[in-house]
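Running low. Any example?
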Amino acid sequence: MQVPSIEEVRRTVEDRFDVEALEAHGGMGAVFRGRHRSLDSPVAIKVLPIPATLDPDQLARFRREAMTAAKLPHPNIVPVYEFEVSGDMAYLVMPLINGPSLQAWLKKHGSMSFAEAWKLLSQVGSALQFAHDRDIIHRDIKPANILLDQDTDRWMVADFGLARAIVPSKDSQLTVTGMVVGTPAYMPPEQATGGAVDARADLYALGSVVYECLTGEMFGLDQTRAGAESRLCDMGFSPARARHITAPLEFDPQARPPSVNDWLVTVAPTGSKKLRVAIAAGVSLILASASVVLVVLLVGQRVPESTQPVVAMLPILVLSGQVPEGWPDDAVQSMFEEQLRSVPGQGLITSQALIVSARGGPGLPVPHADSLAAVGLDRGATTIFAVSVEFLAGDSIRLSARVGGAGGDPETFKARGPVDSLPVFVSSIVVDAFVNELALEEAGLNEAMPRDVSAAVTYVNGRRLFRQAAYHNALERFQVVIAADSTFAPAYFWAMFCEVMRTRPTRATRATRSALEAALRYGDRLPPSAKALLDAYRLLVEDGDVVGAYAAFAEHAEQNPTLADAWFMKGYLEFYFAPLLRINQRQAQVALQKARDRDPGFAVPYALLGWIAMAGAEPNKAVAQRNFRSYLSIDSVSVWADLIRMADSAAFGGTSQALKIRESLYGRPVEALEYIVLAGGALDITKTDRLMTDQAIVALVSQATLPSDKQMVFRMQAARLFAARRLDDWDELRREASSQNTPGIELDYWTLLLGVTRLLPVPNPDSLSVVARRLAKADDPVALWLAARWLGDAAEGARAKAQLDALRDSGYSILVDNLLGDLAAWHALAAGDSASALTIWGRSTERHQIEDVFFGLVGSLWPLQLDRARVAFAMGRYQEVLNATAQFEKTVGFMDQVAWFEGLRLRANAFQARDNREIPDARRLRGCLTYVLEKANGAGVAEYEEVAAEWGVTGGSPTCRLP
């Protein structure tokens, strides 16, 4: 064919799409890469030039490609967005699949393992069975028409342009007996000779593709099934497995399996036949007599993520009437899904998750119930749940629920009565349908919805607002629910998370503690899933056990793999506390992606995934931008949205945009500025990000009016100053703070802190003793610890230690234990027992006052880790040095910067000393440290020159990105 130019295609599609480049061309069209202007999403534009002597058959076949694919809404079929004929050209628009064709994959890798081939076979087989059930055959299955979508890890079938409807239609003569259409290398004999074909032709072609995937060799018409079977046996397949795999390659169509489903059941890996292979079953929703009839046909099964039963809930159908005024459109849907989440030992796939999975692209209509049910089965559902609702005259409501599973007829559950009883009806239907008497007796089924319908609607609104990151508004809704029903535990639970998510990082302590206490009062009344989350969160906050809490969240997620909240909390800990967990922050991607996939309307996972994509040695800006835009489609007004817009502009808008953002910081909310500062405390940020962080601190200084705010911004300024060793600026900063009425205790903190940690020389020890005695009178664990450290075993020091010990039962009990451990370690060190000191420091840094970690003066326990590293290095225990200094490389708290100069120096030297040679980790850290110190002044210049001479380096990486 004559391939049109890009300019010709641009004129044809006019202003709806940007046409960027030619991707491929063949006998049935040329494919161009483009972008949908209004949706800003990548698309593939397939064009067919119409010659002057128009071939009606060719154009009709091209038109049918669009019509056929458009009515096959399946997650493994590439959908069609649009079809048009304009002038002398026809074109259709499809999503641009980010990934190779199977043809390209095999060219690169040669062949597949059986597990890889089974994944492809089950997904492509699911798509073909879905088409065959609708009397459509593809006729050109080949590796070039099977694409790997790397964004969703799905194999997808493309190019239904040669499809032929089995049921006769007005244009069924377009492809007739005697015409050979397709690709000869993968055609069955009946198709190659121009004979009649049916769905078994696709089965033969798919069998040929799978054979090629396993062997790396094409199956030609000159070969036989027996030869293919022998080849597989030579590769190590059992005779039975080889016989099943090659079953579609019989030359006689009658000898092949009757359907794709029948073939897949025999090929499925051992142990999975009693479960579900990824076969989309036929599911029909028939509206009759104001009720829903659900027919579920399950053929085979694939292995779901866990062995628990899983319910896939279809979108609720409103058969008559209107949703009452003031209710959200999905109020009934939300009530059922909230109640389903509370069923012990059962997973849930929400309607929104089904819709997003089945749509295949943005802007498309909600798929038919058949497609949604097929997606549910493909994702491991054991049951399909469909509900219809009728709003009747006289404020009455009628519900009809149908439950279908493997084997047996669907069951029907109905309820009718006043709208005010809706929560009771929802609870009773779910209990009757999904909770047997034994489970109800042993585990109970705590209420997932308030009994009052007004409170129930308010509650589901609060849950929605929480997912949209509107935490202030969500908290208001939960407080209304609590006022209406003071014993309804889930309202306290979600109010707690609203407080956690909305609170400024510098003020986390009070809000987190009080909210947790309120939730724990009613914790025993929570549904099992929420109770498990609360128990794990209690470990985090009350016990300071980050590792234990993480294990609890991870276990809950694995046991409840369909629940977005469980995966989100696991990913949230991995994102914010990666250094304490000794993991890379990127590990959070898996859990956050699962949270996003299970609840596509949940905003925060998109934000965290975007920030992860922007971090590290190789930022992925495309992934970041995609997640940022998805977030903003859900929430465009919160502080998080403000942060994302800034990150998006700074990352993709160039230097000028970054400059504009820095200039705009003075008008930004305090919460946003604090998050910017927190992110800017990392070692591996770019020079642009450092400037942004420093500007955010300046903006906070200008907004600080309360003493507590003045205290905090001074702390931020001091940490940045000592990170860069701008030591000449220290006295000036203190003078400015005094003139701006910064609380004196913060200045005392720093004066004594720098003395006890030996980060600055102590010119006048007596003056520090005066400060220590002053702090010894404060009722604060940090003040008492500093006083006890400086004053030692003297009477005043002993009193400060005793007062610190008396604070064990306070809200700072974990931090008190940490600081008392530090005093004990120093006592052991003074007695000459360095080994015991290291043991005590190691034990005293295992738990954290978690809400004090980010901006607490010593909440990240950096002074303890620094002293531990010093002693371990002197003893030649280099691995312990690396353990103690890990948080200075992967920053735990903002104040870790204070110890960078010595901590990173110790870490780099420990790497080299441990292996007795120069290693990349040591070189990288030296580059990072010298880069950070480039703006040192005063005594800091001498320190910089000392390490530069010691290491033989000058300057460091301009970005200092860490792996």
Notes: The chain has five domains: 6-95, 102-267, 283-443, 446-526, 728-951. DSSP finds 42 helices and 17 strands in the chain. The domain at 6-95 is CATH 3.30.200.20 (Phosphorylase Kinase; domain 1).
